[in-house]
Amino acid sequence: MFFHIVLERNMQLHPRHFGRNLRENLVSKLMKDVEGTCSGRHGFVVAITGIENVGKGLIRDGTGFVTFPVKYQCVVFRPFKGEILEAVVTMVNKMGFFAEAGPVQIFVSNHLIPDDMEFQSGDMPNYTTSDGSVKIQKDSEVRLKIIGTRVDATEIFCIGTIKDDFLGVINDPAAA
Amino acid sequence: MSVEPFNRLVKLAARAFYDDITTKGDNQPKTGRSDNRGIAVVVLDALTRRQWVREEDLAKDLKLHSKQLRRTLRFFEEEKLVTRDHRRETAKGAKIFSAAVAATVDGQQTAKEGEEKIKLHTHSYCCLDYAQIYDVVRYRLQRMKKKLKDELENKNTVQEYICPTCAKRYTALDALRLISLDDEYFHCESCNGELVAESDKIAAQEGGEGDDNARRRRREKLKDMLQKMEVQLKPLIEQLSRVKDLPVPEFGTLQAWEVRARAAGRAANGDSSGIDPSRSSLGLGYGGSSLPFVGDTKVEVDLSGAEGKGEVIKSENESSLKVLPPWMIKEGMNLTKEQRGEAKQESKMDGSSASLEFTDDKKSLIENDDKKNIQDEYVKAYYAALLKKQQEIEEAAKKHDLSNAHSLNGLSSMSSSRQVGMKSKRDEDEGDDDVEWEEAPVASNANENYKVDLNIQADASGDDEDDDIDWEEG
Ligand SMILES: [Zn+2]
C-alpha cells in the first residue's frame, strides 16, 4: 500500500556545496540518500515529492560539515498482510517462485501454488498446468496475495499465495 | 465465587488432553508396570478438591511416590495449569499451613494432625490456577482448530521447512536466505542440508509422497479429525462457554491464601461456637486424632487450643462465647438435665463445651484435651449409670453439686461433677440458668453422632464407673 507522508532527516552537507545552490544540493543529496531505502516502520521510500522545510544548519566542530534538519514529503510503499499485489516473477525453483513488486521481494512456496500446476525443471524452470495453458516462469506477471511479512529495520520480505480466486498469471510473456 | 464449574472444566480438560500423558522419561523402559498413564488425571482431580496443598501431603493422600507426583506436577506447571510455590520452613511453618488446610478442607485434615515431625525442609505447595487454565484450554482448542483448518484449506499458511540432518526449522519468510545457486532447493544455513517442507509430514506418514492421491487422503483425514474434534470436545467447549462469565476462583499466593484460610476458618468456628455442628465436629476431629498420638501431639493440641482461644476472644458478636463463666454453668445445667433423663445428647454438649473451657484454662492444654476425650466417655458412662440410679440417689447430693457446678474450672471440677455432680445438677436446673438452656437445642443435631458413639461407649463402659474414678485419680 502506498502512503504520502512527511518524514524528517538530518542531512550533513560538505562545505563545498555551500553557496548559491546550497538548497538544490541539499535536495538532490536527500533524494540520493533516501529514495529506494527501506525502513521497517514506514516501508520503502519510493519518491520524494517535496521539501516541507529546511531548518537552521549547525556547523560541526572540526569538520566544517553542516547538519540541516530537513522535513520532506515522500511516497512510501508498505506491504501488508492480506494485500493483493501484482508482481513480476524473478526466479522459479522446486520450492516455489520469487517475484518482485517494485522494491518488495515476495516468495510463493509451491504449497501456495494451485494444485494443478506442476513444476517443470529445465533451462526455464516453470510451473505449468497439465494442459499447458497456464505457465509461470521468469518474467511472468502474477497477481498474488500477501500472507506474511517479515519486517526488519531495513528490510521487508513477503510471502504470498496465488492459490485463491482471481490470483495467478495475468500476463504470460511466452504466450505474447 | 463458585469453584464447581471450573472444577468440571479442569476434569474435562484433564480427560481430553492429559489422559494418556506419561511422565516417565524417554530413556526409561515402558514396561506395563511403569506405565503411569492416567495419573495426570488423578492428580488434577485431586487438586480440584483442594486449594493450596503441600505436595507431600498430596502424595500421601494419593498413595503416590512423591517423586512421581512431583514429576507430574512439574509437567502441569509447564502446561500452566498449576502454580507451585517452594519455601524453606520449620515444623512450625508447616503447622501453620496444616491449620489453614484444616480450616478449609473439611474431613481431610485429620490425617495431617499426626504427621508433624518435619524439621527445616524445603516444602513445595501446589494449587490449580483456574484463570490460567481457562485461558490455556481455550488457547489449546484454538490452536488445534487453526492448525487443522489451515492445513485443510492449505491456505494462508506460512510454509515451514526442516533440516533433516540438524532439525533446524525455517519458514518461508527465510526463503531469501535459503536459496542456493547450485540447485533448486533450499539449504540449511548451518549444515547446508537440503530442507524438507514440513506439511508433507502428514502425507508422508501415510506413505504417500505428495502426489494427488496422498493429498486427497490427507484432506479427508484432516476433515475427519476436525469433525471428531468438534464432537468429542463438545462437552469441554460447552463448559468453557458456561464458565465464561463467571468470576474465576482465585486463591492468591500461598502466603495470602494461608492467611485468608486461617482467618476464614477462625471466623467459621467463631460463628458456630459451641452450638454449630461443624465446629463441634472439628473439635472432635482434633480430639480423635490426637488420642492415638498422645505422645507427640502436644503441638497440635496447642494449635487447636490456641485457635479455640482465639475464637473465644475474638468473636465479640457471640455473647455466648464471651461469657465463659455462664457457659460453665450451662454445662452444669446440661448435665443435670441429662441426669433427669431428658436428653443424653445434651450431655455431649456439655463435654465439648467443657473442652472449650479447658483450653482457656491455664493448665496444660494437652492434658486437658486428652482428658477431655476420655472424660467424655466416662461422663457418658457415668450418666447412663446415673440415670439408673437417679431415683435412688437424687436427693442425697444436691447441695454439693450446686457448689461444684459454679466452681467448675478445670479437670478437677469435671471429675467432681462426674462423681458427685450428676445428681446434684438436677437441682440447679430448677435455678436461674434454665433460660440459657433453651438456646442449646440447635446443637443437638450435631451431637447426635456423638450421642451414638457415646451411647455405645456408655453401654460398654457403663459398668466401669469404678474405672472412671481411678482414671481421675491417676
Ligand atoms: Zn541443518
From TrEMBL, chain A:
One of its GO terms (molecular function) is single-stranded DNA binding. Residues 79-156 form the S1 motif domain. GO terms for cellular component: P-body; RNA polymerase II, core complex. GO terms for biological process: positive regulation of nuclear-transcribed mRNA poly(A) tail shortening; positive regulation of translational initiation; transcription initiation at RNA polymerase II promoter. InterPro entries: NA-bd_OB-fold, RNA_pol_Rpb7-like_N_sf, Rpb7-like, Rpb7-like_N, S1_domain. Its main location: nucleus. This is DNA-directed RNA polymerase subunit.
From TrEMBL, chain B:
GO terms for biological process: transcription initiation at RNA polymerase II promoter. This is HTH TFE/IIEalpha-type domain-containing protein. It comes from Juglans regia (English walnut). Residues 6-138 form the HTH TFE/IIEalpha-type domain. Residues 400-474 are annotated as: Disordered. InterPro entries: TFE, TFIIE/TFIIEa_HTH, TFIIE_asu, TFIIEa/SarR/Rpc3_HTH_dom, WH_DNA-bd_sf, Znf_RING/FYVE/PHD. Transmembrane segments: none annotated. Residues 429-439, 461-474 have a biased composition (Acidic residues). Keywords: Transcription, Transcription regulation.
